[in-house]
């Protein structure tokens, strides 16, 4: 992990276009949606966006937004868009960026984070607790909601 740098978009606004393109490619959400959110993160505590870089290459990313497109608007803010490039998986990178985000949110006086996923045991490894099932926009089946006290 020492060779990787975690960068906050909030402090690296010159990376917005590159980051928005990368997240858009991974999650099939319009680049413009990411650009707008990332522009907001420069001035606000939420949303926030983070990149894990190896030199000039994005190898992982994560965000924190108010609501990750689910029906439980009271469960906020939400970790979202957690992604590690395939060739970098199984090296503890997801755990490191999750830990980094949790520390950053705690410094912003946020005491609980939420996360929607279809994974059934992955996030428990990193101290997240299953809370309930939620209905995501455009989905017919329910997704798992986790939380973590900071």
Describe what you observe in this structure.
- This protein is an alpha+beta fold and 150 residues long.
- Helix content is 25%, strand content 32%.
- The protein contains three helices and seven strands; from the N terminus they run βααβββαβββ.
- Helix 1 (16-27) crosses helix 2.
End-to-end distance: 23 Å
The structural class is: alpha+beta
Strand numbers in spatial order across the main sheet = 1-2-3-4-5-7-6
User: Helix amount, in percent?
Assistant: 25-40%
User: What's the overall average pLDDT, rounded?
Assistant: 93
Low-confidence stretches: none
Q: Based on DSSP secondary structure assignment, what is the total number of beta strands?
A: 7
The count of helical stretches stands at 3
Strand content: 25-35%
Could you say which overall geometry the principal axes of the C-alpha atoms support? globular
**Helix-strand topology string:** EHHEEEHEEE
Radius of gyration: 15 Å
Largest sheet: 7 strands, mixed
Lay out the secondary structure:
Blueprint: E1 5-8, H1 16-27, H2 31-41, E2 48-54, E3 57-65, E4 78-84, H3 93-107, E5 112-117, E6 129-135, E7 142-149
Parallel strand pairs: 4-5
Antiparallel strand pairs: 1-2, 2-3, 3-4, 5-7, 6-7
Helix pairs in contact: 1-2
